[in-house]
Amino acid sequence: MATTTTTRADPGAAPVRRPQVRANRFGSPLRRSQRVAGYLFVLPTFALFLGFVLWPILRTIYLSLTAWGGFGAPRFIGADNYTRMLGDPVARRALIVTLVLTAVTTVLLTFLGLLTAVLVNVVWKHVGVLVRTILFVPGIVSFVVSGVLWKLIYDPNIGTLNQVLGAIGLDSLQHPWLADQTTVLPAIILVTIWGGLGFAMLIFFAGIQGIDPSLYEAAAVDGANPVQQFWNVTVPSLRVVTGLVISLGLLNGFKAFDIIYVMTGGGPNHGSEVLGTYLYSLAFGSTSGSIPQLGYASAFSVVTMVLCTLAVIAQLWLTRRADR
Questions:
Q1: Range of 45's domain?
Q2: What does the pLDDT look like over 13-65, one tens digit per residue?
Q3: CB 133, CB 201: distance < 8 Å
Q4: Where residue 183 sits, what CATH number does that domain have?
């Protein structure tokens, strides 16, 4: 809708009428075209999200409410799969192992990653690049490759670990590390720490580089020693980074599968069974006489998704709290 305004160049001049354009509720034509272009740019990504993320999630949730072996039409059974999960001793064992693995690896990776980053930044400063490279190399190696490598190291007959223990006179400590329920989980946790320490260290190291040096100078002027500077300057300044490392540790722990499947397959006697490995065995029939239980396996997928969602919520909460 257009209106006109009247202006005068000087008292003797005739009035000049200029059109004034009033923006309608849809904005100017230029803004409308920009908005349409933006939607068109987003549309391919949104379509991929719908087809490869949202639809599989919704389909998995539906299958978790059915009894389906992969053939024929799924039979709707409601929440029976979740009820069955509560009474399944292997499922309870897998959940406990998953939670223990997640908690231990998250705490150790957070603590050791921060400690290593500080050492690289202060103590090993002159050889920091070399140390960072050595620590980060395991993180770029596939967990499948790492699992095969460490499975050979832990081998009771030809494994490097037992051979080294025998060579230094500690034959009594030689052990079938992956064949004993008491040692299989600590052995896997050690491999997980070995593979994830470099990445956690690198995140903390990048965060330390962003701390204002004047904070350390002010603390030194106040008489703070290096330990006090660490607790009163470094740790509070890395709250957001710490929240990120914790959330990544939780996510990686809840969805753990590949390294455990390669090293133990969930054994011995479900001693290293996690939700991912039990889900895999159910879906592909190795625990049910070669009869797939895709509906029951989908219920484990939903539980894993819920745990990962809680990890993301925890990360958002920690980040928001750190920004206050």
A1: 23-63
A2: 555 555 554 545 555 676 888 888 888 999 999 999 999 999 999 999 999 99
A3: no
A4: 1.10.3720.10
pLDDT of residue 2: 47
Shared-domain flag, residues 181 and 48 = no
User: How far from chain centre, in Å, is Cα 85?
Assistant: 25
Dist CA 90 CA 87 (whole Å) = 9
Q: By CB neighbour count within 10 A (0-12 exposed, 13-18 middle, 19+ buried), where does 182 fall?
A: exposed
| Rounded Cα gap, residues 220 and 207, in angstroms | 20
Q: Is 79 within 8 Å of 86 (Cβ atoms)? A: no
Q: Which of 165, 191, 166, 167 is nearest to 178 (CA)?
A: 191
Q: How many folded domains does the chain comprise?
A: 2
- My answer on whether 92 and 45 are in the same domain is no
pLDDT beyond 90 at 100? yes
Main-chain phi, psi angles of 20, to 5 degrees: -120, 120
Spatial neighbors of 237 by CB under 8 A, at least 6 apart, are 207, 211, 215
- Map the chain to HEC letters: CEEEEEECCCCCCCCEEEEEECCCCCCCHHHHHHHHHHHHHHHHHHHHHHHHHHHHHHHHHHHCCEECCCCCCCEECCCHHHHHHHHCHHHHHHHHHHHHHHHHHHHHHHHHHHHHHHHHHHHCHHHHHHHHHHHHHHHHCCHHHHHHHHHHHHCCCCCHHHHHHHHCCCHHHCCCHHHCHHHHHHHHHHHHHHHHHHHHHHHHHHHHHCCCHHHHHHHHHCCCCHHHHHHHHHHHHCHHHHHHHHHHHHHHHHCCCHHHHHHCCCCCCCCCCCHHHHHHHHHCCCCCCCCCCHHHHHHHHHHHHHHHHHHHHHHHHHHHHHCC
Closest to 239 (Cα-Cα) out of 179, 124, 322? 322
